[in-house]
Batch of 3 targets.
Target 1
Amino acid sequence: MPIVDKKNTSEMQEYAQFVRTSPYATATQDPAWAQVKRGWGDAQIYLRRDGSIAAALSLLIRPVGGGFCVLYAPRGPVCDFYDLDTVEALMREADAFAKARHAVLLRFDPEVRYDEALLERYRQRGYRVRAREADPHALFQPRHNMVLDLKGKTEESLLAEFSQKTRYNIRVAARNGITVRFSRDREDLRTFYRIYEVTCTRDRIGARPFDYFERMLDAFGEDCRVYLAEHEGEALSGALAVAYGDKVWYSYGASSNEHRNLMPNYAMQLEMIRWALALGKDRYDFGGVYSLSKDNGLFRFKEGFCRQAGVTEYIGEFDRVYSRPLYFAFEHALPLWRKIRSGGRSTPTEGGNAGV
C-alpha cells in the first residue's frame, strides 16, 4: 500500500513536490493543509508509475465514534479526474488503509466543472454522488464558486469585465483614501481576527479560533498573506489569501461595521487580484457562494467581479462507501453530520471556501 511514511523526509518531499507542481494542485491537497486542520488525522496515498508518482490523495481522518472514522480528501484527488482508470487505481490503493482504519466512507470533491456524463460514469463504477440534488449546506464544500479568469489579462482588461457598480465602488474607495497593505505579521493577523469576530457576530457565523489562522500562515509560508484595508490608520476589512498552484485563493475575509460606505472590500480585492497578476497566476478564486440570488449580498459582491465569467459550478461530492449501514446512519444523523462537517461552524465567512 503506497502511503507516505511521514518520518521519511525524502519520501515526504517527493510527495509534496508532486502535489505542488501538478496541474491539478489545490492548497487543501497539500500535506501542509493537515497542519491547519487540528482535530483531524491525516494520511497521504499515492500511485506510482514508471518509478514516479502519477497520482496523489491527501486524506483528512475524522473519528465518528465506535472505532469508526470518515476519510475526506478536500478538493482531491490530484490527477486527471476524467482518467477514471487512474482514479480507480488510486482509490484501490486507499482501500486497504480505509479498511484498516474502519472507515465508513472516503469522500472527495474535485475542482472539476459540472459534467453530467462524467457523473454517470462514476455512478456506474459504484460511487455515491452528491451534486445538484443535494442540499448545498449539507456538502463539505460549496459547489458554486466565483472564479476570475486571469489568463492573458491585464488589470485594465479585467476592470472592463467587472460590473459597472464594482468599478464605481473601486473608484469610491480610491477617492476616500482607502489604502491596502499586506504582511505576515502576527499583530496584523490579530487585527484581521478582531474584524473577523465582528463579521461572525454580525452574520451569525461560527468563528474559527485565532490559532487556526496562525497555522495557515505557518503552513504556507510566504504564499499566505494577511491583507488589511485601512482608512486614516483604522483597519476596516481584512483577508487571508493563499497563492497555490495556478491561482490565488481568497480563503477568508472580514469587514467591520464602521465606514462600510467607503468600500474598503473593493480596494482590498483589487490588491489581491494584482498579486495574482504579478505572480502570473491563471485564476483568482473568490471562494464559494451558497445563494445565486442577487438579493444575497455575498453573491452580489463576488458576482460584480466575475460578471463575465459567471458562476463556476463544480461537479460535487463522491463517496466510496465501505459500510452501507453506517453510511446510511451517517447520512441521516443530521446533527452529527453538521458537527463533523464544520466543527460547530455555520456556513463560510465572507471570504471563501476553506470549508472542512
Target 2
Amino acid sequence: MITAIVFVKADVARIPEVAEAIAALSGVSEVYSVTGQIDLIALVRVTDHEDVARVVADAINKVPGVMETETHIAFRAYSQHDLESAFSLGLD
C-alpha cells in the first residue's frame, strides 16, 4: 500500500465543495481542512505509483477550485492509530 499526503491550495470561496469533491474520488481515504499555508490535506492510499499519478494528476488537480497541489509519498509508518475508536464518543 502506498500512502501519499497531498497538500491542496484551493479557491477560498469553494473550500467545502473542493473538499467534498476530492473526498469522493477513488483512492482518497480522507480529506482535512487545515490552517496555515494550505487549505486541505488529502490522504491517498493506493496499491502502486501509477495509481498515485492517476489520483493526483488525473483527478485531484482537475477538481474545479483546486489551485495548486504538493504531493509527499510516505515510505515508512511509525504508528498505526485507529482514528475511529480514538474519536469514539462511546454512544453505542
Target 3
Amino acid sequence: MLELNGEETALVEKIKAYLNECSPEETVLVNQRFRCLAALGEAVSQYPSIRESNKLRGIQRDEGHLLSTLCSFASPTHLLHIPARVAAARSYQVAKFQAFSLLYILLRDKKEFYQPLRKVMLTVIHTLMAEEVYFSCLDDPDFSQIVKINLAYDLISLWDSGNDPRAVQHLSALDALWSARDAAPPPCFGTMNASSELMRVTMDMDEGWQEFIIARVSIDETRWALEEFLFGLSYEEITSIRLKLAEQGENAVGRQEIDSYLGGKPAYGIIDSTDCRSIYDFYVDRRDTARFRKRTSAPGPHRTLEEIYLKYRIAQE
C-alpha cells in the first residue's frame, strides 16, 4: 500500500500536535488533506502489482513482458505504455507533495519544521526526476542492453514499492547538488566563465561529485549544462551575452545588466529557493529545451546537468 514512511508520519503527527494548540482550524484542514492522501494511496494500491502475471486474450503479461516493453520504446512515448497503477502512483506523488507543501506554507516561520518538510518535498521532486532519467537511459545507445534491463528492473521496483536502492543512492546526490547551489551566493556573472560558482558549489559536494567534475567538465555538453544550472540562463542566452561582451570590448557584465543584454527577462525565469516547485520547473524548462536542441541538432546541451550527472554515476557502478 502507498503510504507515508515512519519518519514522514512522525513529522506529520508532530506538526498536527503543534497546530492543534496554536491554530485548531488549520489542524482541521491538515487532517482533511492527509485523509485524502491516505485514501488515494489505498485506491492506488487496489490496482494489481505490476509484478503480477496475468493472461489477456492469449497474451502473457508479467514482469518480463514489461521489462521488454520498457526497453523497446523511446522515453517521450512511454505514457500510454505504462500500467495504470504506475500513472496513479505518480498522481499520489504529486498529491503527497501538495500535502506537505500545505504544511510548509503554514509553518515556514518555524525553523524546527523547515528542513524536515523541505526534505520530503525535495525527495518527491527528485523521485520524479530520477524516473525521467531512467527513461532517458533506456533510450540511450551508450548503455548496453544488460544495463538497460537492470535499469528497467529498478524502474519497476520504484513503481511497485515507491523506492529502490539505486534511486535512494542517487537521490541523495541530487539533494546535495541543489543544497550546495542554494547555499552558494547568487551568481556574479562577471566574465561568464562560471569558475567561481563551480568552485563554491564543489566545495560543498562529496568525492563523487568531484570525480564527476574532473572526468566530465572538459566535455562541452557537461560544461554547457553546468553553466545553465549555475547561471540560471539558457545556453543560447549565455552565448549571446558573451558575444555582446566581445563586441563591446567589455570584460564583465553585472547582475543588473543581464536583462538589458538579453532584451528581456531570462528564458528560465527566477528560481525561488523557498518554493521547491521552482526547482522542478527549472529542471523541466532545461529538459524541454535540451530535447528541442537534440531533435533539431542545434548546438548546446542535449541533456540537463542532473541527467548527465546521474547517468555518469550509473555508468560507474
